[in-house]
Please model this.
Amino acid sequence: MPTFFAELDHLTGVRVGAMVTFLVISLRDQYGIDRTKWVDQGTHYSSLEEIAADIAKILKVPKLASDNYLGRLTTTILAG
Model:
């Protein structure tokens, strides 16, 4: 199963008053290939499952729990 690595920005959500949301800064697969275009960088996501759903649309797979079809979706959180 593929693995995706997402770099997330939680600070922007806090600044605009949406405390529990985040933006995706970048998305790469297990080979280091940039897959950022698969997600909307302007969307304030509230869960990793929402990112997984966007990736599922691109891969044309059923919407399932992220660990069933993505393998892993790991994150890096930027701190102030």
